Amino acid sequence: MKKREKLAIIRQHYPNAMTTIDTVNRLIDFVEDELDLEPTQIMMADSICSDDVNSIQYPARTHEFLGPFKMGGLDGFPFTGLTGMGAFASHVPDNGAVFVYYGPHIGISKDGTVGQIHRFGQAKVSSCCGAAKGALNRLLNDAIVAGEVRDIDYQMNTIEQILLNHKQRIITAPVPLYEATEVIYEAIDDRIGELVAKTSYNCQYVILMGAILINSDTDMGSFSATRRFDVINLTTKARTDLLDAHFPCYQPVPA
């Protein structure tokens, strides 16, 4: 299957999706051409789901950056919190930049089914994101208790509480799992914003890329639908929204 055919499937749901490889390539071009920095001056953190498929489909070029520091737990929520962000910030080169890639993930199979992928070596499809789908099932069955967050399943319970706060929005959506992923993205984006505001960085720039990470079948690869691309100049304190300039929406590509 050609790349344009793969993108046509994914862009039915996420019009600005790119392959994760192309996303990283575009980011590196931006860092080199517009910030005049080398990837080795960039300390990267990611707040994405701990699902093994994200490690399997992680683009090789990200290893040109320093890191990554792992901030995320189930479905990408930054469970390492303020301590994690502070630790990560202390590792950045003095004349470099911090780059944080964050967001939930969702599966879209090659037949266009939302919420499932065909994983390597398995005959049957499986859920993606399994945590989001599990939390959604509990939401649909009225099995989530408001405020119940147990130590033994803290991360899953936190995801459940996030969904419970937006129950009507999710259960009335045409594709509830898609909408649940949107809700989780918004919660992650808000929390990353809080963490950045409360953290000191000894470098030139903070680069924030919020996205929906889209996994697919083994022979399809992964994709990224960027929702935020902000650069904070720590000298001038200016924050610039560069999303439309670098990650615009596309019309679905004909198959």
TrEMBL record:
Ranges of residues in domain Limiting CO2-inducible protein B/C beta carbonyic anhydrase: 19-232
Domain of life: Bacteria
InterPro entries documented for this protein: LCIB/C_CA (IPR040703)
Protein name: Limiting CO2-inducible protein B/C beta carbonyic anhydrase domain-containing protein
